[in-house]
Structures are given as C-alpha cells and as structure tokens.
C-alpha cells in the first residue's frame, strides 16, 4: 500500500483533517498540550480517517462533516489505545514509550478521556444528522464492552468462535463501520451506498483484526512488533481456535491457557500446538473470506479511484507484515 | 438535608430515572453486568440527578429528556470516579472496595469507559436540542482537563488561586452546571431561567468542592472519610491558599509540598501551618460567598417547593460533615 499516494489523493481534505485534529486537541494546560502534540507527531497508519475520507469520496461529495468524522474516528482510536496501554501494562506504543510509561497510568487514563471528549465534541458539532451521534456512541460502548468481554474470557479460557468474532467486531470492526458509514452519510450517499459502506467496513475491520491475531503467531519480531503476546495474556484468537477444531487435545490446551500465568513455558507449547495443527493457514483462509466479502460489498458503488483504493487497502491487509 | 424527602418529592421522575440507568447499563457481558449492578446498589448521594430534576421542576415541566439528562449526569460522574480511583490509586469508594481494587486498574478504566459511553448514548437519544450535546461534551473535556491541570500543578507546588478555581470549576462545577442547565432546557425553561440555572449550579459546584477541600483538613475521620489526603498528594487547595496569603513563609511551605514525597512528616507540618494561619476559617468565609451567590441566582425563578429545596441543598453543603 502506498500510503503517501492515498494521502496526496485525499488532499485537500486530509490536510484540513489533520489541522482540525491539532486545533481540537490544543489545550492551555501545558502538560496536556505537549503530550497531545507529541502523540500527533507519531500517529501511525491513520487507517480510520483514510477509510472515512475514501468512502466519503466514493459515495458522494465530502463536506465539513466528513472532515470532522474522519478526525473524530482517529481521535477516538487513540483514546482507546491510551486506555489499552493501561489495561495491558504496555510500555511502548508505535516504537516509542507509551503515555503510560512516560507519565503514569493516571495521566494515560485522563489524557485518553480528553481525546475521547474531543472526539465527542467534534461529532456533536456536526450538522443535525439524526443517527450520527447514536452510531458514534454505540461504537464507544462496543469498544469498552469488547475489551471487557475479552478480559473476562482470558481468565476462563473458554472463548468460543462466537465470542471471538463478537470481541473483534466490538474492539475493531465497530469503529471501522462507524467511520465508513459516517463518511458515506456526510457525503450525501444514498441508503444503498451507506449499506455498502457498512458491510465493507465491518468485514474489513474483522479482517484487519484477524490479520493482527495471525501476526501475533507468525509475525517477524525484527520489524518492531512483538509476537506471542496473546497467548501470554490468555487471549484465545482465531489461529488457536482453528487449531483446536481438528484436535483431540482441546481440554488439555485450554487447561494450559488457564494455568499459563504459573507456567510461562506453556506459551511456547501452545504456540507449537497452533503451528502443528495448521492454525495459521486455516485462519488465513478465514481471513480471505472476510476480505472477499469486503470487496463484494463495494460492488454497488460507482467506479472511482477511491473505490479502487478501498479494495487495495483491504487486500493489502492480507499481506502486511506489521 | 432530608434526602428521602427530596427523592419522594421527585417521584415519579426519580423512579423512572433510576430504572433508565439500570436499563442503559445492563450488558450481556456477565462481568460487566454484575459490576454495574453492584455499583448501582451503592450509589452514594446522587446529588447530580437530584439537582437536575429539581431544577427541571423549578423551571417548567420535566419530560423524557429530563429523565435522560439526570441519569446521564450520574453515569458520567460515576465514570469519572472509576477513572479517578485509577489516577489516585484509591482502594475504597463509598466505604467499599473500589472497582480498581476488586478487578484491577484495566477493568476500572474500561468499565468507566462503558459508563461514559452509555451517558453519551442517553444524551444522544434526546430530542434534537442543538446545544445539548455540545454542553455535555464540553463538560467531558472540562473533567479531564481539570484533573490533568491538578496533576500537573501537584508536582510544582505553584498552584495559584486562579489555577485552583479553574481546577475545581472543571472537575466539579462544570458537571453541576451541565446537569442543571440540561434540566432547565428539557423542562422548557425560558432563557432567563436557563441563565439562573447556570449561575446557581456553577456557584453551588464550586461551593461543594471547597467544602470537600475544607473537610480534607477539618473532617471527622470516624465518619468514614479520610483526612489529610490532599497535602499528601501535593494538592494545594483553598485552606492552604488562604493560609499562605497572610504568611511570610510562602516559599518555605511551597518547598515542603514539593518535597513531601521524600518527607512524609511535612504533611502534619503543612496542616499545622494551615490551622495556625486560620486557613480553614478563611476558606469557610469564601465558601459562604459562593453559597450566597448560588442562592441569589435563583431569584428569577418562580416560588416552588423545588426552588426551596435547591436553596436547602446548597445551604446544607456548608454544614455537611462528610
């Protein structure tokens, strides 16, 4: 994926979107302002505003609200990352010390709250489109509920495939969906286009998270992203679920996950079980299914370079290495 | 203050409001649902929905939105308390173990996020009243910004009176203001009544926080609320600011605050300084000023039992012992 090409295509909206983010997040509290600037200087892929603005263009004509929704989705995403760092005790974020490790968990919670509040403020300053705030607040609660369900399931090691799909929908796909649907709505897309945006984004979001979960087993640590974190945190994801399907060692493996805090050596054993039972390959087949469904969902949209890029983005996801 | 009398006066709205809270906060994630129920079984004073519904009645005729706003303000308040417990490392809340101490800081952050998202959802399901969501999201960011400013000032011990008033406006009075203004708006109050609600609530909120800060110096620990926490956490509040005003030991005392983590014995020394320099009495005089301004603000409202209770509530605050 050529990120620079997409961003330059998305101008002038992209530049206005990043400007709006900086403006919204400025504060006269020096500690907050400085931290916000330093986060914005190291923003990562910015996939959500990219999707939002591409979808807006693919469905109609972006307006001021398209800019707001794109900025708000990235701000909400970063708010949840700051809170996740507290939940997971993560000292690094995007290759640099996390807010939590620099300023403590209290500051990470509060600065996350500030980003979240500014996202809500941006959404609330949009034109009076009835369902916009409802959709956004549903995503807010999905994000929290998904993480809590994942936390609850981690201890008991009884995550079913249904639980897993629900968790990844809530923690990743729900915000993909909101950002694309809001993009489509703001650009004046017809109901058919809005449905297409919803279906594309839900499938792309699930695919994105499945790929993340595959990389946790099969990634290349030298590229900067640690592997093996999920098993160590007792998270049962698709590669393990797929490996368990054809196995007669289900109870034994689930028992190891439950007991992994006392037996760190179980980590490599569970990971070997996944490799031996082709969990990664089978998860990759499932991933392909979601990617295809995301692509198919775009069929109703008129041909455009932005539509092509939406296809490219979801395909690229299958091959990304970090 | 006879809490039961106010609640029984506020029925049927009160019962509908608590029912709506339970309904909004129900979840099919068992850990979340169980925790939410247990928080709701031990809700404390519930001052914010009380103010909101009293103000709605005092300004006009409460409707469905009045119920929603009252519930949302209490939910947002509880969300911030869960996050504050993480920030302050508080193991107790309302005499029971805090969510953080029971389930860890990660869960406290996420469950707080869930309560916050449900408050936003309730506000967003209100009728299309333009400024409602803007006011609510301003309060959201005030809450975070106030806490962060307080955190920043704690380390440097250079809190001015202006900083202090800004901190307590943001962390307490802003939500008082939102809850009363939303009550007045939802009941169809005219602009004059809405202004009265705003001024009453801002002054009452500041008075409430000043009283809290006085109790931290002069409270009775046997009633269940610990004292001396603020100085130990390097927070400079009004009793100390007032004591500093007439003193020639300003730099020495600020130096002790800066160094208090290495010298816990400075706590009692700073507290003695406050007593000796009549910081508590002087803060109480300031408190009376805010209470009077809150009362005066209500003058434009027509006579009603609810208006009398709003006066009673803000006066009671001067005498409360916890």
Overview of the structural elements:
The first copy, chain A, has 322 residues and is mainly alpha-helical. Chain A is 75% helix and 1% strand. Chain A contains 16 helices and 2 strands. The first copy, chain A, has helices at 3-10, 13-24, 30-40, 47-59, 64-88, 99-103, 105-124, 130-156, 161-186, 191-218, 229-232, 238-245, 250-258, 266-276, 279-297, 305-319, and strands at residues 92-93, 96-97. A two-stranded antiparallel sheet of chain A has the order 1-2. The two termini of chain A are 12 Å apart. At the A-B interface, helix 3, helix 5, helix 7 and helix 8 of A face helix 3, helix 5, helix 7 and helix 8 of B.
Percentage of residues in strands of chain A: under 5%
Level of helix content of chain A? over 70%
- Please describe the biggest sheet of chain A, giving its number of strands, its sense, and whether it closes into a barrel: 2 strands, antiparallel
Largest interface pair: A-B, 43 and 43 residues
| End-to-end separation of chain A | 12 Å
Radius of gyration of chain A, Cα only, in angstroms? Answer: 20 Å
Shape of chain A: globular
Order of helices and strands of chain A: HHHHHEEHHHHHHHHHHH
Count of helical stretches of chain A: 16
Low-pLDDT runs of 5+ residues of chain A are none
